[in-house]
Design a protein that fits this description.
Elements: H1 2-14, E1 16-20, E2 30-34, H2 41-47, H3 51-54, E3 57-62, H4 63-66, H5 70-78, E4 82-84, H6 95-103, E5 108-111, H7 129-136, E6 141-148, H8 150-153, E7 166-170, H9 182-195
Parallel strand pairs: 1-7, 2-5, 2-6, 3-4, 3-5
Antiparallel strand pairs: 6-7
């Protein structure tokens, strides 16, 4: 119940409209990958999913941010986030392995391949984690998502959101192709997100 309330509050604060382009909500295992401009991105994207899809979808978020203070820790638990410690990445316990272990054969993921937040003017280069995630689980359906305007609703360094409208656009499913080079795949994925801005 509290998770549903959090989703409602997130949708109201962000004024988010949701568009599905050549894609429909589904509870099959997916990786939703999106541009990253605000700390609100994870919770607003998660809240934009239908209830049954939301129940089996876990955002990946930065541990150092979401474990800072009781309120953030509680919020992260409500949307069942997988928290990644960006300062303690180990070869034998990589973030990709942690994500795959946490989702098993049930959950979908929300990831932000840029890693850190961008200004919102341009989508940054994608880190290699998305590629290795797909390399280990090529069956996972990849859904590009473009998030618009959240960087203005919660600007960098601010705590309270500004009431503005935003838009979440889901694009056509894609997969890692057999033998596709890492850099080519990451650029194709980045272009899939960028293309939704004009869709």
């Amino acid at each position: 119940m509290m998770g549903n309330l959090l989703a409602l509050i997130a949708r109201l604060l962000s004024g988010a409209s949701v568009r599905w382009n050549d894609c429909q909500p589904d509870i099959c295992q997916r990786v939703y990958f999106a541009n990253h401009t605000s700390h609100l991105d994870a919770v607003v994207l998660w809240s934009s999913l239908p209830l049954d899809v939301r129940a089996v979808t876990r955002p990946v978020a930065a541990k150092d941010y979401w474990e800072r203070g009781r309120v953030r820790r509680y919020m992260a638990s409500l949307f069942n986030a997988i928290l990644i410690d960006r300062r303690e990445i180990k070869i034998h316990q990589s973030p990709v392995d942690l994500m795959l272990r946490e989702i098993g054969d049930k959950y979908s993921l929300i990831v932000f391949p840029e890693g850190s937040r961008s200004s919102g003017a341009e989508i940054g280069e994608f880190k290699s984690g998305l590629y290795y995630l797909c390399k280990k689980r090529p069956d996972l359906e990849l859904i590009p998502v473009h998030i618009e305007n959240l960087n203005r609703i919660l600007p960098r360094g601010e705590f309270l959101p500004v009431p503005l409208l935003s838009c979440i656009t889901f694009g056509s499913p894609m997969w890692l192709e057999a033998g596709e080079p890492k850099l080519a795949f990451l650029e194709r994925a980045r272009e899939a997100v960028r293309g939704l801005k004009e869709a």
